[in-house]
TrEMBL record:
PROSITE patterns: MTTASE_N, MTTASE_RADICAL, RADICAL_SAM, TRAM. PANTHER family: CDK5 REGULATORY SUBUNIT-ASSOCIATED PROTEIN 1, MITOCHONDRIAL TRNA METHYLTHIOTRANSFERASE CDK5RAP1. NCBIfam families: miaB-methiolase, MiaB/RimO family radical SAM methylthiotransferase. Residues 148-382 form the Radical SAM core domain. The keyword tRNA processing applies. Residues 5-124 form the MTTase N-terminal domain. Residues 381-442 form the TRAM domain. The lineage of its organism: Bacteria, Pseudomonadati, Pseudomonadota, Alphaproteobacteria, Rhodobacterales. This is tRNA-2-methylthio-N(6)-dimethylallyladenosine synthase. Monomer. Catalyzes the methylthiolation of N6-(dimethylallyl)adenosine (i(6)A), leading to the formation of 2-methylthio-N6-(dimethylallyl)adenosine (ms(2)i(6)A) at position 37 in tRNAs that read codons beginning with uridine. InterPro entries: Elp3/MiaA/NifB-like_rSAM (IPR006638), Methylthiotransferase (IPR005839), Methylthiotransferase_CS (IPR020612), Methylthiotransferase_N (IPR013848), Methylthiotransferase_N_sf (IPR038135), MiaB_methiolase (IPR006463), rSAM (IPR007197), rSAM_horseshoe (IPR023404). It comes from Lutimaribacter marinistellae. The keyword 4Fe-4S applies.
Length: 442
């Protein structure tokens, strides 16, 4: 028997890319694919795929420097095929082919169901490039997910693309217009995952709460989809990300209070606290409307842990605007938050505007991160003494230790030789470290 070919995928960027990488590996695997098995070593691979992200600066440069490092490997192994996938591929595919002759294959985020044909083309010695936004739905064309065992948590993309056109963001250009998958396909995929041992599913979308996929009686909302998933036996936890404040509908807020499987964690980016900047960002909500929204969410689910994204140094942001961001962070008290220095993205409206002095932007980023870290640590420390539920995901570094996530997405270490991966245990938190909690089984 000949050895199966080996595929090494390196994933950059968001969780949607993590999901796409899994599906790409499945598309190239076993029957109907090209017979690849995955490897975690690039030097062992017959094909290397970089699944790239274009959201912030230097992404493309990182891809080129990573590609350059494969030169030696390719010289040793002329049959090695090198591909670039994801949003940099979408935005700069032809340029990549021109600039880096090592690259055999380029595939965008909307056409990777065609990977088997592209791989065959690359194997025959031709360059293969596909950055279409095809008519057909790639998820319909991909094979049903395999039945092999896997870890207890999984991502499931339910919606892709975005029609919001925030002035700083490339997503509407690289991922395209907002499209929701039909509910029955999502439910089938979820059941397949649960059969493989999955107990927690995170529903993904660039604008996941704008979900409006076809259901049995017309379009469904994200809340209706969550209630349909709630009925799947063996699925114990549901999460979703990333949401837009304008799409937090009443039924979704209510689900946070009423659906036991829906975890008390919500990633709800606001980006900035100044209404002037929000308007220039084309966000179509204000700081005040965002704060009132969080009040309503907390009324439905008082213990919900809030998470967010921020951009500092957006064009024309003044110190006063930035203060408004700090004020908003103080008021919300985020359990997690991600902050970024504004990075001009070619082709987006904000890229043309006057930029904030980079040193000033760096300074603001540091001040914001210090505030976020303070709240994050405090909220983590407040967990000590509380009882949480932990889904065990993998053994810890110490003997007899297990690591999992609480309902609030905190990493929790538990010393328990009996603990099994995939088990959900009641745990009392006894200690809080910089990046994780320690607990004891109750
Ligand atoms: N510059 C900096 N941060 C950005 N984000 C998106 N586009 C940019 C940009 N051009 C951030 C936003 C978004 C997160 C995924 O990345 O905060 O919510
Ligand atoms: Fe980008 Fe999110 Fe704005 Fe859409 S809503 S344009 S994905 S930041």
């Amino acid at each position: 028997m000949t050895e199966p070919k080996k595929l090494f995928i390196k994933t950059y960027g968001c969780q949607m890319n993590v999901y796409d990488s899994e599906r790409m590996a499945e598309a190239l695997a076993g029957s109907g694919g090209q017979g690849y098995v995955t490897t975690d070593r690039a030097d062992d691979a017959d094909m290397i795929l970089l699944n790239t992200c274009h959201i912030r600066e230097k992404a493309a440069e990182k891809v080129y420097s990573e590609l350059g490092r494969f030169k030696g490997l390719k010289a040793e192994k002329p049959d090695l095929k090198i591909g670039v996938a994801g949003c940099v591929a979408q935005a700069e595919g032809e340029e990549i082919m021109r600039r880096q002759p090592l690259v055999d294959l380029v595939v965008g985020p909307q056409s990777y169901h065609r990977l088997p044909e592209l791989e065959a083309k690359a194997r025959s010695g031709e360059k293969a490039l596909d950055t279409d936004f095809p008519e057909e739905d790639k998820f319909e064309k991909l094979k049903r997910r395999p039945k092999s065992a896997r870890g207890p948590t999984a991502f499931l993309t339910v919606q892709e693309g975005c029609d919001k056109f925030c002035a700083f963001c490339v997503v509407p250009y690289t991922r395209g217009a907002e499209v929701s998958r039909p509910a029955d396909r999502i439910l089938t995929e979820a059941r397949d995952l649960v059969e493989r041992g999955v107990r927690e599913i995170t529903l993904l979308g660039q604008n996941v709460n704008a979900y409006h996929g076809a259901g049995p009686d017309g379009d469904m909302t994200l809340a209706q989809l969550i209630w349909a998933l709630d009925k799947i036996d063996g699925l114990e936890r549901i999460r979703f990300t990333t949401s837009h404040p304008n799409d937090m509908t009443d039924d979704l807020i209510a689900a946070h209070g009423e659906c036991d499987k829906l975890m008390p964690y919500l990633h709800l980016p606001v980006q900035a606290g100044s209404d002037r900047i929000l308007k220039r960002m084309n966000r179509s909500h204000t700081a005040e409307s965002y704060l009132r929204l969080i009040e309503r969410i907390r009324a439905a689910r008082p213990d919900i842990l809030m998470s967010g994204d921020f951009i500092v140094g957006f064009p024309e942001e003044t110190e006063e605007d930035f203060q408004a961001t700090l004020d908003l962070v103080e008021e919300v008290r985020y359990g997690y938050a991600y902050s970024f220095k504004y990075s001009p993205r070619p082709g987006t409206p904000a890229a043309e505007r006057a930029h904030v002095d980079p040193a000033e932007a760096d300074d603001r980023l540091q001040r914001l991160q210090a505030l976020i870290t303070r709240d994050q640590r405090a909220i983590q420390n407040e967990m000590v003494g509380r009882e949480v539920s932990v889904l065990f995901e993998k053994p810890g570094r110490l003997d007899g230790q297990m690591v999992g996530k609480s309902e609030y997405l905190h990493a929790v270490h538990v010393q328990d030789a009996q603990a099994r991966i995939g088990e959900i245990a009641k745990v009392r938190i006894v200690d809080s470290g910089p990046n994780s909690l320690a607990g004891e089984r109750v």
